[in-house]
Amino acid sequence: MRLAATLRRCAVTAVAATAAVLVAASPAAAVPPVTPVFGTTIDAYAAYDPQNTCDPVAKPGVLGFRELALRTYPTTGDSGIVRSCADGEVTEHKEGRAWDWTINAASGADHARADEFLAWLLATDAHGNRHANARRLGVMYIIFDGRIWGSYQAADGWRTYTGSNPHTDHVHFSFSRAGASKQTTWWTQADQPAPWPRTERGSTGTDVRVLQHLLNAAGQSVTVDGEFGPATETAVRAFQSARGATPDGIVGMVTWSKLLRQVQRGDQGSAVRAAQVALNATGANLTVDGVFGAATQAAVASFQSTHDRPANGVVDPTVWQLLIAGT
Ligand SMILES: [Zn+2]
């Protein structure tokens, strides 16, 4: 009896584990890749620059792109990057700057994955740049399910593809030479810190209010008036000394980073006030009460959406950076 009970318990555990895996792998749970934070600089549309040599070595930008797609859609497959020089066609595969993503166009779930990823590639970014991720990755053209999108003819959108292979078992991506060699902004500028304001004696305004609340959250006691005067400077020096930084009284990247703390729903206090002041400067209309409730959470989520970030309503280091660099 004891053995049977043990077996039954194991069976229940096994079923639970299987269910968890199924939930995690469900196509409905798939989301497109997270877009890193970028500045306003963006790549020009890649010109049409077809294969003209043979160098069948997978290029780093193509390997990185493949990894991005397969990590995002782990149930999909890889139909290859390089093709032999003996292949008669003109194809960027022979230069290692094309990738075939295994997608079955006849499968609704697979087609949805491709549609989602392609929509993500061709979406307009927070700065108003059209086809932003495709440009940042150096995508030159895409062929899937009887249609082609070319960066050199982007104004025409998706066009009917008239080649002999309708591409119904894979999505073909060709890359510019810059994209293939990781010279485009996706690779060179991703997550570069936005400029931190240099806040010091004589500074005024929102940055100073945010700073004063954060100093109070860190145990200092300053009046929040938006004026960086002698008392604020003294508090900054004391904070810097306590945190092992040079006590120069100037708040730049290092001191800002030390001051920031993650806040989220349910938190209270001066760090929440700092976030509320910063959010109000971006157009929110929050009461600065130091209570992180539903309204503050919604304001953070809205701010995250406009910056192409997952809208989880948490003021994490990235959100702080966007808030402070933007105020
Ligand atoms: Zn191909």
Task: Please explain how this structure is put together.
- This protein has 327 residues and is α+β, with helices and mostly antiparallel strands.
- The chain has 2 domains: 30-188, no CATH class; 206-326, Orthogonal Bundle (Muramoyl-pentapeptide Carboxypeptidase, domain 1).
- The chain has helices spanning 2-25, 60-72, 108-122, 132-137, 177-180, 185-188, 206-217, 230-242, 253-259, 270-281, 294-306, 317-326, and strands at residues 77-78, 98-102, 139-144, 147-150, 159-160, 170-175.
- The chain has a 6-stranded antiparallel beta sheet.
- Helix 7 (206-217) packs antiparallel against helix 10 (270-281).
- The N and C termini lie far apart (69 Å).
- The structure holds zinc ion.
The H/E string reads HHEEHHEEEEHHHHHHHH
- Number of separate helices: 12
Q: Which ligands, by name, code or SMILES, are bound?
A: zinc ion
Low-confidence stretches: 1-29
The secondary structure category is: alpha+beta
Brief write-up:
Residues 1-30 form the signal peptide. The chain is of the alpha+beta class.
Throw out a few tags for this protein.
6-stranded antiparallel beta sheet; elongated; 327 residues; alpha+beta; 2 domains; binds zinc ion; Muramoyl-pentapeptide Carboxypeptidase, domain 1
Annotate the secondary structure layout:
Elements: H1 2-25, H2 60-72, E1 77-78, E2 98-102, H3 108-122, H4 132-137, E3 139-144, E4 147-150, E5 159-160, E6 170-175, H5 177-180, H6 185-188, H7 206-217, H8 230-242, H9 253-259, H10 270-281, H11 294-306, H12 317-326
Antiparallel strand pairs: 1-2, 2-6, 3-4, 3-6, 4-5
Bound molecules: zinc ion (ZN).
